[in-house]
Design a protein that fits this description.
GO terms for molecular function: oxidoreductase activity. InterPro entries: ADH-like_N, Chloroplast_QOR, ER, GroES-like_sf, NAD(P)-bd_dom_sf. With about 325 residues, the chain is of the alpha/beta class. The protein folds into 2 domains: about 1-130 and about 285-315, Quinone Oxidoreductase, Chain A, domain 1 (Alpha-Beta Complex), CATH 3.90.180; about 130-260, Rossmann fold (3-Layer(aba) Sandwich). It contains 9 helices and 15 strands. Strands 3, 4, 5, 6, 7, 14 and 15 form a 7-stranded mixed sheet that branches. It has a 6-stranded parallel sheet with strand order 10-9-8-11-12-13. Helix 4 (about 155-165) links the parallel strand 8 and strand 9. The chain is globular and about 55 Å long. The model has no long low-confidence stretch (mean pLDDT about 95).
Length: about 325
C-alpha cells in the first residue's frame, strides 16, 4: 500500500510516500480501506513533535511512522472476535491511538469507529470525529445569553463550535487571524477579533472562553473572564498548560473564576450527535480544501500555518 511516512520530527519536508505492507488487524481491530482522512492540529503537532506531549509515542524519534487519525472508509477485514462490523461496511472515526490515516489502509480498534451515515460523504465523515468532539465538549455550557469567546474559531474545531454555541443561544465572539474574519461571521459569530491586531484578553468580560490555541498568560485569561466565568483550553505549549493547571486553578479560585484544560471524551458517543445535527442540516460541515495522498505535506502546512477555513481533507485516489 502507499503511505506517507516520516522517520523523524520536523516540518512537512520530512515526509515521503513509500510502499508498505498492508497491516493485519488483531483481536478487537479492523482493517479499513481509507477513502478520506482529515487534518487536525494534532497531526501538525505530531509531525513537528511540539508541544512536548506530541512526543508521547517517541521522545527522540516517532514510533508511529504514519500520521492521520480521523478516517473514513470501508472495512476490508476484521480481526478475531469482531462482530460489530463486516467487510464492506462504511465506517468513520478517530483512530488517535493507532493513527495511520495517511495511507491506503489503516488498522483501527472497533471502539473508535461507527457506521457512516449514507447521507454523509467520506470527506464529510472524516471531518467530524476529532474536531467535532472538541467542539461538542467545549460548547457544552453554552446557553441563552451566555457571553462566549472562542479563540482559534476559524479552524476545524471552531467551524463546529461557533454554530453549536449559537444554536444554544450564546452570544459568540470568534478570534482568529484577519483572513478568517468573514468566515467566522458566516458561521454565525456575533463579533470577530483579529488576533494579530487586537488582544482579546482586553475585551469582554466573557462568561466562557474556549481556547483552541492557548499561548497567553494565566493572568491575561483571568482578566478576560467575568466573575464566575470559565476558561478551558484544548491545547497549547506544555508550559502554558502546566501554568493553567497550577497557577490558573489557584488564581481562578481566589477571584471566583475557573481556569482549566478541556477534557475531551473521544469516540463515537461524543461526535455521533453532531453528525446527526449535520445530517438534519442544523450544522454545516465546512471543507476548505481537499488534497491527494501525495499532497499530504501541503495539506499539513495549510492547517499548521493557520490558513485553513474550517476542515482540510485528504482523499485517496
Amino acid at each position: 500500500m502507499r503511505a506517507v511516512v516520516r522517520d523523524r520530527y520536523g516540518l512537512p519536508d520530512v515526509l515521503r510516500v513509500e510502499e508498505l505492507p498492508v497491516p493485519s488487524p488483531g483481536p478487537g481491530q479492523v482493517l479499513v480501506r481509507v477513502l478520506a482522512t482529515s487534518i487536525n492540529l494534532s497531526d501538525w503537532e505530531g509531525l513537528r513533535g511540539s508541544p512536548a506531549y506530541a512526543r508521547i509515542n517517541g521522545p527522540r524519534r516517532p514510533r508511529q511512522r504514519v500520521l492521520g487519525s480521523d478516517i473514513a472508509g470501508r472495512i476490508e477485514a476484521v480481526g478475531p472476535g469482531v462482530t460489530a462490523f463486516a467487510p464492506g461496511d462504511e465506517v468513520y472515526g478517530d483512530n488517535l491511538a493507532l493513527m495511520g490515516g495517511f495511507a491506503e489502509y489503516a488498522v483501527a480498534p472497533v471502539k473508535a469507529l461507527v457506521h457512516k451515515p449514507a447521507g454523509l460523504s467520506f470527506a464529510q465523515a472524516a471531518s467530524l470525529p476529532q474536531s467535532g468532539a472538541i467542539a461538542v465538549t467545549g460548547t457544552a455550557l453554552a446557553r441563552p445569553g451566555l457571553r462566549m469567546l472562542i479563540n482559534g474559531a476559524g479552524g476545524g474545531s471552531g467551524s463546529f463550535a461557533i454554530p453549536l454555541a449559537k444554536r444554544a443561544g450564546a452570544h459568540v465572539t470568534g478570534v482568529d487571524n484577519g483572513g478568517k474574519l468573514e468566515f467566522m461571521r458566516s458561521l454565525g459569530a456575533d463579533e470577530v477579533i483579529d488576533c494579530r491586531q487586537d488582544d482579546f484578553t482586553r475585551t469582554g468580560p466573557y462568561d466562557a472562553i474556549l481556547d483552541l490555541v492557548a499561548h497567553r498568560s494565566v493572568f491575561a485569561y483571568r482578566r478576560a473572564l467575568a466573575p464566575g466565568g470559565r476558561y478551558r483550553c484544548a491545547g497549547g505549549p506544555v508550559r502554558t498548560l502546566l501554568r493553567i493547571l497550577t497557577v490558573g486553578t489557584v488564581a481562578g479560585l481566589l477571584t471566583g473564576r475557573r481556569l482549566g484544560v478541556l477534557v475531551v471524551r473521544q469516540g463515537p458517543a461524543t461526535f455521533e450527535p453532531l453528525a446527526r445535527q449535520c445530517l438534519a442540516g442544523d450544522i454545516g460541515i465546512h471543507i476548505d480544501r481537499t488534497f491527494t495522498l501525495d499532497e499530504v505535506p501541503e495539506a499539513l502546512a495549510h492547517v499548521g500555518e493557520g490558513r485553513a477555513l474550517g476542515k482540510v481533507v485528504v482523499e485517496m485516489g
